[in-house]
Amino acid sequence: MDVMGDKATLFETGRFVQPSNREDTDTPDETGEIADEAAEELRQRLAAEAGDVEAMSVLGAMLLRRGDLDGAEPHLRAATAAGDRAAANNLGVLLHQRGYADEAAGWWRIAAVAGSAAAAHALGRHHRERGDEPAAEYWLRQSAEQGHTLGAYALADLLEHRGDAGAEKWLRVAAERGHREAAYRLARALDRKATRDTGGDNAVQVPDEVEQWYRQAAARGHRRAALHLGTILEKRGELKEAGRWYLTSAKDGEARAACALGFLLRDAGDTENAAVWWLRAAQDGDGNAANALGALHAERGETQTAERWYRAAMDAGDVNGAYNLGLLCAEQGRTAQAEQWYRRAAYAGHREAANALAILLLRAGDEAGAEPWFSKAAEAGSVDAAFNLGILHAGRGEEQAALRWYERAAAAGHTEAALQVGMARLRDGDEQEAERHLRCAAGGGSAEAAYRLATVLDARRPPEPAHELGEPVHRRSECEEWYERAASQGHRRAQVRVGMLAAARGDVVEAARWYREAAEAGSRNGAFNLGLLLAREGSEPEAAVWWTRAADAGHGRAALRLALVYARRGELAEGQRWADRAVSLGPESVAERAARLRDALRQELSA
Question: What whole-number distance in Å separates Cα of residue 532 and Cα of residue 558?
């Protein structure tokens, strides 16, 4: 009879499990099923004094549970001498508590040989603590194969430590019998396996079995399992349930869950409560939470408090703290301190700090000092650093080296890098590759890429087919869509082109809108075209205003138009002045016409 069961492994922590049978439980019922424990103890004591071996064993177990080692020992020894294997197991527990580990192991061996799974578990742990893994495995396997939950878990732990694939089987056995740590570790093992199988792709959904075991462990109070379950649910967009599990884990003292809960609350717009949980996590040593608090105070303009939290993050071992301190100092114009913190983070392997340090050095004119840091950041995976290296090489005229870095950044999704690669491929005549990269850049929001992609598509667009009755049929083409996208992002040349397309359709209002937008943004072609449109509509005075703006910006045709306007008005001197300007601005065809007009005006003036 094993009243104490596997208490050998749990006694030190003061935790006891609910008994399910006499062989594999820690203690008698602790839930109050026995109304009067004192009366029960008296009954067992009377029976023990009358020579009842089972009563001796039960009484010894009761006293051991209460911590009365001196009272328990004689009863356990007497029951053991009478052949009670549960008493032998519990005598081992008692001796282990007294510090007599070797003697305890002797009694556990006796009980284990007699068939006690709990004793086999305790003996296996004893051998593992002494480094005798073969003996530990033998006894733990004996315990596990007899259905002992803690034996299965301990065996799995031993096998996992050795890298043995059999660990998963025993973790599963223990987890299925309600062992929460086994459920958590099984989930972690399956999670790692799934991550390896998907090549580390975080976007791939976590397998249902992984979530199931995290959920079981979390439901039994495992705080790290609750954290992982919250993370899975958050990635899936189930924020309300994720928040519940983060809260459960955080209340149990898991700093990372408190930090994650803070971010969840911040994203929901509740920064006040987010700060409460970040504070709690930061005080427990979570560097990420300290950084979040620093950023929150920095946004509020409380730079001293922000700096204090960034330093706390750094002290907690989070290298982001040093990087954020660098950013804070840089924003305040404290360049020397910013460089110091960037260097500290960069030497610790922070790739964005290395990139920021390189930019700082480059701005100070130290190109030779900047390049190695750009390279270090780029090799560590910084997309911005790879793009910056491209700019650095392009500035030296090293086009091939620049292109290599641009391609590397573009492959990682850098929009401007994709634009540079597309333009380079256009120069090389590789239109297909150019189009591919321009599409990537345009899709990423680059107005210049959208415009250049539109020009590529426009150049290969066939002429518009004619309607049967001779009227042109307008079909909205893809190139027009890209022109419009670029125009809506403020690209002046695209705005002019969209205006021209609208004018070709006869949509004067739309054309004027786009020309005006381009002209007001500084486009001389937009101003010139707007002038043409206004002149055709009979508003020559307003047209002259826009032509003047275009001519002042260097537009030769606008200057020629102004010369003609003033000539018609009879303002010959002003007309001659604008004709002179048109001659100097060109192009050649405009210069020739302007020269003839100038000469004619000169003759008129001298007549």
Answer: 9
DSSP code per residue over 80-115: HHTT-HHHHHHHHHHHHHHT-HHHHHHHHHHHHHTT
Helix spans in 220-364 (H): 223-235, 239-251, 255-267, 271-283, 287-299, 303-315, 320-331, 335-347, 351-363
Q: Which helix H or strand E contains 16, and what residues bound it?
A: none
* Closest to 547 measured CA to CA, from 576, 527, 575: 527
Please say whether the beta carbons of 418 and 390 come within 8 A: no
Return the SS3 of 472: strand
Percent of the chain with pLDDT over 70: 91
Per residue in 232-287, pLDDT tens?
999 999 999 999 999 999 999 999 999 999 999 999 999 999 999 999 999 999 99
8 Å CB contact between 458 and 479: yes
Rounded Cα gap, residues 438 and 306, in angstroms? 41
- For the entire predicted model, the pTM comes to 0.72
Long-range interactions of 276-283: CB distance < 8 A, separation 24+: 277/250, 280/250, 280/255, 281/250, 281/255, 281/256, 282/309, 282/312, 282/313, 282/316
Largest pairwise CA distance in the chain: 150
